[in-house]
Amino acid sequence: MLVLSRKKDETIILKGPNMEDIKITVVRIDNKNKVRIGIEADKRITVIRSELEDAPCLNNISIESY
Fold it and tell me: Does residue 47 belong to any structural domain of this protein?
């Protein structure tokens, strides 16, 4: 795992062969150190929170439904 430090409004860019860039930006850090992030990615990329990855309601989601 790569661990990076970022401040508010700083961005991490994920680049890969034959894919669009994915940009992850720190949008806000509140006084309880809760971080809000923004993710910019191609519509074909599915972004979900890890705790929802195995949720039954996600089993039937397809790209066409977006």
Answer: yes
Given a contact cutoff of 8 angstroms between Cβ atoms, the answer to whether 40 and 23 are in contact is yes
d(CA 8, CA 2) in angstroms, rounded, equals 19
Where does 1-66 show beta strands of DSSP type E? 11-14, 22-29, 35-40
Supply 49's token pair: 């929170």
**Domain range enclosing 48:** 11-65
Structural domain count of the chain: 1
Give this prediction's pTM. Answer: 0.74
The partner residues of 39 in beta bridges, in order of sequence, read 24
Identify the three-state secondary structure at position 51. helix
- pLDDT digit string (tens) for 18-64? 889 999 999 999 999 899 999 999 988 888 888 887 777 766 555 44
